[in-house]
Design goal:
Layout lengths: L2 H7 L10 H12 L4 H5 L5 E4 L1 E2 L11 E12 L2 E3 L2 E3 L1 E6 L5 E6 L5 H7 L5 E10 L3 E4 L3 E4 L9 E4 L8 H18 L5 H14 L12 H26 L15 H7 L6 H14 L6 E6 L5 H13 L4 E5 L3 H18 L3 E4 L5 H13 L4 E4 L13 E6 L7 H8 L6 E6 L5 H7 L4 E5 L10 E6 L3 H13 L3 E5 L12 H11 L6 E3 L5 H12 L7 E4 L12 E6 L7 H8 L10 E6 L5 H12 L3 H12 L24 H12 L6 H10 L8
Parallel strand pairs: 2-3, 7-9, 12-17, 12-18, 13-15, 13-16, 14-15, 16-17, 19-24, 20-22, 20-23, 21-22, 23-24
Antiparallel strand pairs: 1-11, 3-6, 3-8, 4-5, 6-7, 8-9, 8-10
Helix pairs in contact: 6-7, 7-21, 7-22, 9-10, 19-20
Length: 683
């Protein structure tokens, strides 16, 4: 990849005209990064047609229309007798039919009145509502008649977030793709073809262009799979290369007996089998690369700790990498007391550690005194050195790319790698997705765990549900209430969760609220308070930020609102936030009025089984029926273009091409950079 293109793709979005640092931070929350490349890989979900009509009478409620309107009068809004009234712009179409434009945000009152002067014609585009009169609330576009062509006849709609409008997405997209041709000068044909396909997806002419089987999406999916499969092949070759063989570490200390005596329970058969696999790998001269797949609550953390203790018997160190601060803190809280009992020094290192405390932790790691360190990406920061890193454990492994795993491995001399995943995937895909790893499966729950009773309930019965929750909370239960992200329009991601929180506060004054837009410290404080048995917080309203790693044994009820909006894997993960103790737990799936037949089928699967592997197989089957759930909700690898059900043949093609590759071509290296976020990959 030429330097000019490489630098362009790595450009921070804040330097795109009209963005700046505030919007760039919001993009980071939605895209998982804030570079031009991160934006380009975040493609539209669907298109919205904006057909022009001149007669409002021919349009149906719910239609998105574009219509010329004559401004007749203004009715200023405000607060009247305790009620907020919208500002209304009374208009007429060319046939004389009345149309009302409404604005509820009084802060921009002067702006709207200037933009819509009485006696002027304006081209207005928005969603039509019908009550006493035809109404358009907060139009998406308002243009003077001579600028009517600025309103797109086909608008690409991006999954968005708080404070990011579709106009902002369109502005950034237009600027990026206007600059791209110059940056591609001199690139090879394959890379030019890749970006041409990407352009077609960002500027779709119909929803067919965004279909997984469209020519552009198939091309992008293949290239993404080729990048991933090539990274897997390179990783496996490096691991088994004679030059990378290592001397097996001899045992120096007796720690495992102490570990087993510390356990307040017996290991399940599945945990024991997984540990036998791991210990066998650790005794070989080829570095271990093993994935432990275990359903929610199956006891993967204890398996990970046992592996770290086994490594500590040789005097070597273990780094346990978690995707979030919250999950790292929870692992540390579980592991530290057991390490103290065994006599192993355990520490935690995250991005929050600064100054003298951080320096002390780094010295302890460098000296070899710290045998187990838990943390986030901070564990492979440039200034972090290990005396002898023997084992790397990665939790929620699908959150990290192949090259990110390699970045941590380089901190030691061919350390063993153990990855954990609580999101089971269909066995038919396991070898393709995790082809560089051996796989162990923990398919038993610890003794005493009761199956979670799952029911579905129409949203219309939410009042009854709240009354039932009152009784349960009075009896000591803790409750999660999860609201979905609104991911397909300018509507705030937080509208649903804030509205539900305000409603529930009327019944439960000590309710808590967490969502992705909160300050991390504030969010973690709320979660910690909810987890505290002595706190008065009995119900927590949340978005999917609680999907992974929140461990509150006293939480016995989870309500998932608009459950039909989630994929099966995501629902199963959310359900796993309860049932973590020995008390009977419940999951209530609230569904909306317009639920589809496929949506009901998904909820039925959840009510019939809590076997994550069976659910994963059903997920794959149902995704083949034509309803695209989106990679962000799949719960497996976070692909951008790959659809597991529709692209199964591409998996085989890409896997074969990668295996037949003697050395990665420049195109493959470029694709690996593009799809693996460039960590540890030289473009």
């Amino acid at each position: 990849m030429k330097r000019e293109l490489f630098e362009f793709l790595n450009t921070d979005l804040q330097f795109i005209k009209g963005v700046g640092p505030v919007l760039a931070a919001r993009f980071d929350d939605v895209l998982g990064g804030r570079r031009v490349l991160d934006f380009m890989l975040h493609t539209p979900a669907y298109i919205r047609a904006r057909g022009i009509t001149e007669n409002i009478a021919t349009a149906m409620p719910g239609d998105v229309i574009t219509i010329p309107l004559l401004i007749k009068s203004h009715r200023t809004g405000g607060v009247f007798r305790g009620h907020r009234r919208p500002t209304q712009i009374i208009c007429a179409d060319k046939m004389g039919n009345s149309v009302v434009i409404q604005f509820f945000n009084v802060n921009f009152l002067d702006y709207w009145l200037k933009k819509l002067p009485i006696g002027a014609w304006r081209m207005v585009s928005g969603k039509l509502e019908r009550g006493a009169r035809a109404t358009i609330n907060h139009p998406d576009f308002i243009e003077e008649m001579q600028n009517a062509d600025k309103i797109p006849s086909v608008q690409a709609i991006y999954p968005a977030g708080e404070g990011l409008t579709q106009k902002t997405f369109a502005n950034v997209r237009d600027q990026i793709f206007a600059l791209l041709p110059d940056k591609l000068h001199g690139e090879n044909d394959d890379i030019c073809e890749f970006f041409d396909a990407l352009r077609h997806v960002h500027f779709p002419e119909s929803n067919d262009d965004l279909n997984p089987n469209s020519p552009y999406m198939v091309k992008l999916a293949y290239w993404e799979l080729l990048a991933h499969q090539s990274a897997i092949v390179i990783s496996r070759r490096n691991r088994t290369n004679v030059q990378n063989r290592r001397t097996v570490r001899p045992k120096k200390y007796d720690l495992m007996d102490k570990f087993y005596k510390c356990l307040p329970f017996s290991m399940t058969g599945a945990q024991t089998r997984a540990l036998n696999d791991i210990f066998s790998d650790m005794a070989r001269d080829i570095p271990m690369m093993r994935l432990v797949q275990g359903d929610v609550g199956s006891g993967k953390t204890i398996v990970a700790l046992a592996s770290a203790v086994k490594m500590a018997e040789t005097g070597a160190q273990t780094a346990l990498l978690a995707p979030t601060d919250t999950l790292a803190q929870q692992h540390y809280a579980k592991i530290k007391p057991m390490c103290d009992n065994i006599g192993i020094v355990c520490d935690i290192l995250t991005g929050r550690d600064k100054g003298a405390p951080r320096r002390e932790k780094l010295i302890s790691l460098r000296s070899g005194r710290t045998k187990i360190v838990v943390g986030t990406h901070a564990l492979f920061s440039d200034d972090v050195e290990y005396k002898d890193l023997g084992l790397v454990i990665i939790d929620e492994q699908h959150r990290f790319g192949v090259s990110q795993r390699e970045a941590l491995r380089t901190k030691g001399a061919n350390p063993d790698m153990l990855a954990l995943s609580a999101t089971p995937i269909p066995r038919t895909l396991s070898m393709t997705i995790y082809g560089d790893m051996d796989v162990s499966i923990i398919n038993e729950k610890p003794a005493g765990r009761l199956p979670i009773k799952t029911t579905k309930l129409p949203i219309a019965r939410v009042g009854e549900l709240i009354e039932r929750l009152k009784l349960q909370i009075d009896a000591g239960a803790k409750v999660f209430w999860v609201c979905p992200l609104v991911a397909e329009s300018d509507v705030s991601d937080l509208t649903a969760v804030n509205a539900r929180y305000d409603e529930l506060k009327k019944y439960f004054p000590h309710a808590g609220l967490v969502h992705g837009q909160m300050d991390k410290k504030q969010r973690d404080a709320v979660m910690a308070e909810f987890a505290d048995d002595n706190s008065g917080m009995q119900i927590m309203v949340a978005t999917t930020v609680i999907e992974v790693g929140i461990d509150v044994p006293r939480a016995t009820i989870i309500v998932i609102e608009n459950a039909e909006r989630f994929g099966l894997a995501a629902l199963h993960q959310l359900r796993g936030r309860v049932g973590r103790g020995n008390l009977q737990s419940y999951c209530i799936l609230l569904y909306g009025r317009n639920i589809s037949e496929d949506g009901l089928k998904r909820l039925d699967v959840l009510t019939e089984t809590d076997d994550g592997f069976a659910i994963a197989e059903q997920d794959l089957i149902m995704r083949g029926t034509g309803e695209l759930l989106g990679t962000r909700q799949s719960g497996w690898i976070n692909y951008h273009f790959v659809d597991y059900a529709r692209h199964r043949d591409l998996f085989k093609l890409a896997s074969t091409a990668a295996r037949d590759m003697v050395e990665p071509s420049q195109t493959v290296r470029d694709l690996m950079f593009i799809f693996d976020r460039g960590v540890g990959i030289s473009a």
